[in-house]
Amino acid sequence: MRPVPWRPARLLARSPQTPTARTLVFSVPGWPGHLPGQHVDVRLTAADGYRAVRSYSLAAPADGERVELGVQSVPGGEVSPYLADVLPVDALVEVRGPLGNWFVLRPGTLAPVLLVAGGAGVVPLVSMVRAHRAAALRGPLRLLYSVRGPDDLWYREQWADRHADFDLALLYTRVAPPGDRRGPERITARDLAAAAAALGPDGTAYVCGPTGFVESAADLLTGLGVDPATVRTERFG
């Protein structure tokens, strides 16, 4: 297998998602395309030759040389604060990818799909939502998205414009907006029960977020009778 090459990536645009999260759009000449759920490595090189590499999820389906990433700025981080707020538009970095062939949504999927996101873990899952919408797939798609509070919600316009092409449940863990009948609490079996039952034998669940969230959500799903072989996880932190 040939090694995946590094390619120059020029920053085209940056837009806010939350007070600390950004969408970054790059132009990457020679980009080979990717599947929803895949990620890239980003490499920064300082003037003295020091290099730092971090992985970031792709936030949109393949679109020519356009590559969209989601970056959550981590306090004290070496790379994420720079990418989120300092890297100038039109500047160059290097990217390597696409990477990861297991946590992906394959083209033409018709079986039920359940997406379970915690915080910034929604980034690769929104790529799956967008691909599902663009392909007008008939298979049922449901997203359960857990965040601390309304200010931490990524992709607000995506959820406001969802129409009837997928089901969405927003779960708040610390602060819930007015009118939210569930109230703030961590994800529970009650939140997942109906969606788990709807998966059936052919469905697949994708769970992404911080390690503790992913482990808890995956355990809840299998406790509800979902086959562990159909639960795919991606974690960070």
TrEMBL record:
Coiled coil: none annotated. It holds the Pfam family NAD_binding_1. Keywords: 2Fe-2S, Iron, Iron-sulfur, Metal-binding. One of its GO terms (molecular function) is oxidoreductase activity. SUPFAM superfamilies: Ferredoxin reductase-like, C-terminal NADP-linked domain, Riboflavin synthase domain-like. Residues 4-105 form the FAD-binding FR-type domain. Its cofactor is FAD. This is Oxidoreductase. It comes from Streptomyces longwoodensis. The lineage of its organism: Bacteria, Bacillati, Actinomycetota, Actinomycetes, Kitasatosporales.
